[in-house]
Amino acid sequence: ICVESGSADEIALAAYFKAHGMNYVPVMVEAGGERAAYETAQCDAFTGDLVTLYSQRLLLAAPDDSVVLPEIVAKEPYGPVVLQSDYRWQAVVRWVHFALLDAEELGVTAGSVEAMKQSDNSDVRQLLGADGALGKSLGLDADWAANAIAAVGNYGEIFDRNLGKGSTLQIPRGLNALWTEGGIQFAPSVH
């Protein structure tokens, strides 16, 4: 298996194979050299984070001849980064993420925001700013979440468009699915 020498992937790969009682032969390559080594048959497989693997697969001469295996070797979550000292911005970024997850769970999409402001569901109304005061406590307008959802869609819409079934990558949702769909995405209600 081709793996970047000295990387977190090298450590995770060794731990994964040890935990599963399996042997493997690591082929150490320089940073970014995994795909080239794989294509020139220096190894039978290569490793990396999920997005990188799906992206690199598309760059292969014959992408349909290779498959990204479903096994998760290590948890390497992606997320937003903000300055540690900017507490207000941290709160806004965190709550926008939560709102996008809540929108998916509640069935609010980019195209349904305006109509759903009239919903009988109090959670939907609070999310979209028709009720509640979370926006004010964050220093935002009442319709902050509605504006975000209308602009980019809910979490599922964003994932599908950029990484999932609506993208060239075609990455399955897997652990990025909502908790109600077998994934680990969960957020507190926006109210």
Account of the protein in words:
This protein has 191 residues and is mostly helical. It has nine helices and two strands, in the order E-H-E-H-H-H-H-H-H-H-H. A two-stranded parallel ribbon has the order 1-2. Strand 1 (2-4), helix 1 (8-19) and strand 2 (27-29) form a beta-alpha-beta unit. The chain is elongated, with a radius of gyration of 21 Å.
Give a topology summary.
Blueprint: E1 2-4, H1 8-19, E2 27-29, H2 34-39, H3 50-59, H4 87-106, H5 113-116, H6 122-127, H7 134-138, H8 144-152, H9 155-162
Parallel strand pairs: 1-2
List keywords for this structure.
mainly alpha, about 40% helix, about 190 residues
In short:
This protein is mainly α and 191 residues long. The chain has helices at residues 8-19, 34-39, 50-59, 87-106, 113-116, 122-127, 134-138, 144-152, 155-162, and strands spanning 2-4, 27-29.
Low-pLDDT parts are none
Instruction: State the major sheet.
Output: 2 strands, parallel
Order of strands across the biggest sheet?
A: 1-2
Between the first and last Cα atoms, what is the distance in angstroms?
48 Å
Give me the count of strands: 2
Structural class assignment: mainly alpha
